[in-house]
Amino acid sequence: MDKPGEGAVLRQKCKEVGQITPSVLKLLDNLAETMRANRGAGLAAPQIGVTKRVIVVDTGEGLVELINPEISGHEGEALDTEGCLSAPGLYCEVPRALRVRVKGLDRQGREVSYRASGFPARVFQHEVDHLDGILFTDRAVGVRTPRKEG
User: Fold this and answer.
1) Nearest Cα to 112, choosing from 57, 60, 36?
2) CA-to-CA distance for 44 and 92, rounded, in angstroms?
3) For residues 78 and 83, what is the distance between their CA atoms, to the nearest angstrom?
4) What residues make up the domain containing 73?
5) How many structural domains comprise the chain?
6) Residues with catalytic roles
7) Helix, strand, or coil (residue 123)
8) Residue 6, helix vs strand vs coil
9) What are the pLDDT digits (tens) for 10-48?
10) Which of 32, 53, 96, 107 has the fewest CB atoms nearer than 10 Å to its CB?
11) What is the C-alpha separation between 31 and 73, in angstroms, rounded?
C-alpha cells in the first residue's frame, strides 16, 4: 500500500499567495468549515486540493488563519502521536519541536506571528509541512492503526 497522498496534490510544494483576493478569502472560509465539520485541529489548502500556501488552525483557543505561513523559530523536541484528516485511522509517533514561532499574513494582509507550545505547536508544524508536500508519515518513528473489533 502506498503512503497516504503519494503522487497526489498532497505531495506538491504549494505556491505562495501573491495577492489576497476574494478567492483566497473563500479558501480560508472553506478550510475552516471543512476542518470543523471533520473535527480537526488544523487544515492546509492541499488537503482540499488547492496548491496555495494557506492554513487554518483551531486547537480550542480560536481560529487562526495564515496565508504564506512559515515557522520562524523553534525550541526543544517532543515525541507524540499524530493523526491526519487526509489519512483517517492512521496514527504515528512523530517528533516535533516543542515550541514554535509561526508568522504569516492574516486575511487583511497584515503580518502576524504566534508563539505556540505543546499541541498547538505540533498542529502548526503539521499544517506547514503539508504546504511543502511533507506528510506526518514521512517524519514518523512509529506507525499504528486502531484494532478492528469483531
Assistant:
1) 57
2) 19
3) 16
4) 9-144
5) 1
6) 127
7) helix
8) coil
9) 999 999 999 999 999 999 999 999 999 999 999 999 999
10) 107
11) 25
